[in-house]
Specification:
With 69 residues, the protein is of the alpha+beta class. It is built from 1 helix and 5 strands, in the order E-E-E-E-E-H. The chain has one domain. Strands 1-2-3-4-5 form a 5-stranded antiparallel sheet, with helices on one face. The longest helix is centred in the last third of the chain and has 15 residues.
């Protein structure tokens, strides 16, 4: 049997100092920092990575969350 996909609520805060917070079910996944042409994601455990764009950064944070939950 395969599991059914569950709908989840993703919240993205308005950017403050080019920094947006990404949450799933009120759990902070991390932040996305947009500076010039660069997008950096900061995971909740303070690791960081580069992303090609904002949407990919959100996907990376959600993928990391899904991997561990």
């Amino acid at each position: 049997m395969s599991k059914k996909n569950k709908a989840i609520s993703v919240e993205i805060s308005d950017p403050i100092d080019n920094r947006s917070e990404v949450k799933v079910n009120k759990v902070v996944l991390g932040h996305i920092i947009e500076q010039d042409d660069a997008v950096t994601i900061e995971y909740a455990d303070k690791r960081s990575a580069k992303a090609p764009d904002f949407d990919t950064g959100v996907s990376m944070l959600i993928a990391e969350y899904n991997l561990h939950h």
